[in-house]
Write a structure and sequence with these properties.
alpha+beta, 21 strands, 4-stranded antiparallel β-sheet, single chain
Length: 446
Amino acid sequence: MRIAYLNCFSGISGDMFAGALVDAGVSPGLLRQAVQALNVGAELEITRTLRNGIAATKVDVIVNGEKDLPREEFWEKQHGHSHEHVHHHTDNESHGHAHSHDQTHPHRHEHRSLKEIRQIISAAPIAESAKTLAVKMFETLGVAEAKVHDKDLASIHFHEVGSVDAIVDIVCAAVGAESLGVDEWRCSALNVGGGVVHCGHGTLPVPAPAVVEMLRDVPVYSSGVQKELVTPTGAAIVQTLVKSFGDFPAMKIQASGLGAGARDLPGQPNVLRLTIGEAVARSVESSESEHSVTVLEATIDDMTPQVFGYVLEKLLQNGALDAFGLPVQMKKNRPGMLLTVLARNEDAQHLADLIFAETTTIGLRTRREQRITLPREWVPVETRWGTVRIKLAQLHGEETNAAPEFEDCRRLAEEHRVPLKLVMQDAMRAYLEQKEAAGMNESGTR
């Protein structure tokens, strides 16, 4: 499976994402053709730059021959304030909610409805899959704005995120992402920054309300940098593309790229890193880890116990991390069972389909939770009846648990027609003897 991983240690924005795509191998010509196809008087300027000494690719949108300014510079230009007095900047890109009448940047004030944006994208001669993805990104933005302002989606008019340069950013993101042929997008926790930002609705805390709305169920944090690091466009890209969040995935790296933000940040490179590769199975976890999982739940009161047990086995065979049932008292005093399934985020949909197909439930509850796991490995030992794997767990490098693999013991017990408990006891005895022998060999004694 081909996967792409976004490391958002300095946040994410539309121009950073475009830069990372190009740096990772997406053809600049492909993005330029997409911009030309929009027919909105825009073009791309693609350059190499340094962010705190790290080389990265910078992508800027030029509209009517003029490069859009970062919001910090734009605000200072309009109000005559220096950055020492106005701490409300967006460092990664200029696309947010701000709305002004500075005629030196006419493309900043174009207000478009979602319908108008759909028409612009639909009319462009680009791949249908990229059009669908770009529209979905704008719909994600629109739903968040509608929620924040308590309006229906049709009445929302985008301010800066409806401007030419924002449309270009999102279409480039969609076209570039589609061209990579990635099966699954994954992402780190997002550094959202801090401080305040000025926009058309006044001074707001970072992250802005629409960004908070789009990042529901997404792991976020602030490193303390007093800048807006995750922009509305960046949040929409993440919410639309990414299916799971967590640490760097196990993969064979094939390509990587760094996309530059508008300027340097204190103490860290203002870049977005994109890494692409083939996923590989990881049999041994190297350290304690916390990662996101999906929990599926359903309460069932009209299914036989035999079928319930069968479903639990089927879920585990199809990739569930865990599956169990608890007795519950349901409405109208009916006894029932609570089915709970713990799944990798990428497996959640097909496990949900299995639950619907194999049980009588017609509804599921889902939620994202964080799961902490200890490093583990399997050590084979020889018993009187055959090989059994011993599952080991460690905490801070020290062994905390050792247990014989149940399925190995059961198979041997059935094959040799001996009690299961004897096989399990013999496996542990063999492991302890093997461990003791290894310890003596390391110390040089016998």
